[in-house]
Amino acid sequence: MMAKISTLRATTLTHKVLLKQLISKGRLIGISILGLLPILLGWIIGRQSEDPLEAGVGFVSYMGLSILIPVIALIFASASLGDTREDGTLMYLWLRPISRWSVTGGAWTASVTITLPLTVIPMVIAAILLDAGNALISATILTSILAVCAYCGIFLLLGLMVKNPVLWGLAYIFVWEATIASFAKPAASLAVSGYSRAIITGRTGVEFDYLFSPSQGTSIFMLVIIVVAAIGLSTVRLNRVEVP
Amino acid sequence: MIEVSNASKTFGNVVAVSDVTFQLNAGVTALLGPNGAGKSTLFRMLCGLTTPTTGTVKVLGRDARNDTPVRGEIGLSPQQDALFDRLTAYEFVEIAAKTHGVDNPKEATNHALELVDLDTVTEKSVGAFSKGMRQRVKLAAALVNDPLILILDEPLSGLDPVQRNRMIELFHNLGGQGKCVLISSHILDEVARIGSHVLVIAQGRLAASGDYRDLRTLMEDQPHVIQVNTNGPRELGAALLKEEIIDGVTIEDGKLTMTTSKVEAFGRSIAPIAKELDVSLTEVIPMDDDLESVFRYLIEGS
User: Of A77, A153, A236, B40, most Cβ neighbours within 10 A?
Assistant: First the structure.
């Protein structure tokens, strides 16, 4: 006898399988070492800066939100379904009588589950070492979580769209998010970093000469929209993909 | 249970499956074809993993690509070796049971692993499995939901002879239970044991379908090409021609190559004739009983 599987149940099952597939010793060691870099830089900047809050917000914005978080999210989120598509194991999820939403939802939650501790913990330690007060620490936690969610959504989609998603993703991170979006207002309004920077500056009260400065509420709303849109588009893509 | 109607699949300029039509009901059917013939593409279309470029493919009257419930009635064991390597055998099959909504996934998982003789290695990671064990864990995952339609792509490759016999027996049992079991293979002898009903696919086209014995008859209509290595090729060739056992003969580099429509008479006569002529036979090699030759005959004959 077979029962209809709820989307939540199917999402949980997909999450479990993909999380196990994503966690490898090599990946974890490499990324943990990468996570030491912001901690070290945070400690150095905290000791040398005259205005640790302003330096800290700048550091978290550029090092954390524009580089560390997107790069680590790229590695896991693009692999969550992208790798299964490449190696042929996607078939084992695709052919089940479960909704496509549950597959993309499970992949997204799996990549968020692993990316969050690997990014938020080093960024929070860096924020503590910057010695700029609780405002920076709480703002770092909030913006890091939101940025992880948004980037995981975008790179989940990328993994289903292109071959070599890591190369495409790195180009997106360093060209679009870290460079163009830092200088051009229209580009920043189409970048995760534009909204996440707006949240951290808003919460800490630090004013940068940013070209793009939406309110915190708008920024949080937009990041949520990015997550929903990315998972939605991934679901549409999954429905149309030719499964190897 | 399976209905394929004028189905074709192209990838750019490459035609993988061309205008294939057939219907299958309960029982075991073997899909025979050489590597690259289009078997796996046809299977992928049946499961909805890829869409036909033209034509229709229905499983239980529905399109598996767009119909979620019908996917619960399909068990697929794919040809590709990829598995979720970090899961144990038990976890791999249990996930299949749970995502199929099987009522008692633990019991179903244990039963499926038992059917394929993997019940002693359930806690071993599938990444550490041998090819034969990987093949069997794929089978267990395909069987765990007790599907009406079983699509098994080269399920016997990598299995040892004992396991092959066990699996072939299992397939027959499943066919006898009213399930539609479609099994692909490129090994002729294997196909003969899998089932009498065969579909032959070559170069993307359905070259023949029907009872296996009819296929053998069709093969026997074709003259056989046999090479004989002997120290008296001229005498032996002339004697066999005189007895009208062979239809034609060529001698090249001392090797005697003959065509015959009377392969059984040839087999009975060659040794006595050689003895009578006092020539020795060092080797008798059938030149065209490989699968490729069979397909060539079938295509040219159809």
Answer: A77
